[in-house]
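Ticket 4471: requesting a sanity check on a complex prediction with adenosine-5'-triphosphate. Repro inputs:
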Amino acid sequence: MMDNKYLVEVQNLQQYFPVAGGKLFEKKVVKAVDNVSFGIKRGETLGLVGESGCGKTTTGRTLLRLYEPTSGKIFFDGQDITKVNMLPYRQKMQIVFQDPYASLDPRMTVGDIIGEAIDIHHLAASKKDRQDQIISVLSTVGLNSEHANRYPHEFSGGQRQRVGIARALAVNPQFIVCDEPVSALDVSIQAQVVNMFEKLQEEMGLTYLFIAHDLSIVKHISNRIGVMYLGKMVELADSYELTFHSVHPYTKSLISAIPIADPETSRKSKRIVLEGDVPSPVNPPSGCRFRTRCPYADELCAAQEPEWKEVSTGHYAACHHLDKVN
Ligand SMILES: Nc1ncnc2c1ncn2[C@@H]1O[C@H](COP(=O)(O)OP(=O)(O)OP(=O)(O)O)[C@@H](O)[C@H]1O
Ligand SMILES: [Mg+2]
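Returned structure tokens:
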């Protein structure tokens, strides 16, 4: 049953992409997201972290049904939206993309980009109302009416991302997938944009899924954080709990990777440095997918997939050897 404390929830979400195999006519699947379940509470930010290719973007896009899920269920505000016509939900559920260069049509003015979103959902009563809404949302993201007549290439990276945020906000959503929205920006302006997301959330009561490679970005903005590895969620906890009392060896390795100059990061726990790369999601390791890079792995890890367990209130992890690791 759908738990109504969540605005957005996914149950056993699976996204397999068919791809061509190495041999002629051979078909394979990329198990990009494999049986992932979590909920996002109203008004909260759930951070989602993990190395490149672990399935973060696919999770975000599938829960918006920009990709149709292979299996599993998606709920929004208590409604099962796995199979419904998404148009009314597109207004409530928006996305801000990682790359503000690729995600804005270079032939359209900023006003048209934002206006298009308003038009799709018939949100303007008149031409003047439409124009007023465009100017209002531009000012919400720190731009002004003059910017409406310009093209994306006339803006800096940070300004362009503000346009992407304005486009999402223009339809008055309740939920936004923020897919690495600051990764492509200069480090000097990343904090500004993250702060803007926080301010918008406070003012508008927004709920976010905030995706990042890097724990150091999401730990400030997130209430809770989920960690993905090779299509699986391996740990999920309150942000502070995850930063200071992580239990999964993969999470510990991510925390080890945060530069020591960061004074807030706990150094009491053992440092885990991973060898090698993430294996292919076409042919993931048996049992625990992390085992090929885990210093604690044994036969059990190869034979059996670890169960997703609540290790303390609201803190979940999937690992056979939590006792050994901690
Ligand atoms: N449309 C697609 N068709 C086939 N495979 C895909 C598709 N989209 C993603 N993949 C594969 O699915 C896996 C997960 O990709 P995804 O983009 O979700 O990872 P990510 O965690 O967002 O990575 P990054 O941090 O680099 O953005 C990868 O192996 C990727 O190559
Ligand atoms: Mg991604």
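Notes from triage: The pocket of magnesium ion (ligand 2) is lined by residues 56-57 (CB under 6 Å). Leaving this open until the requester confirms.
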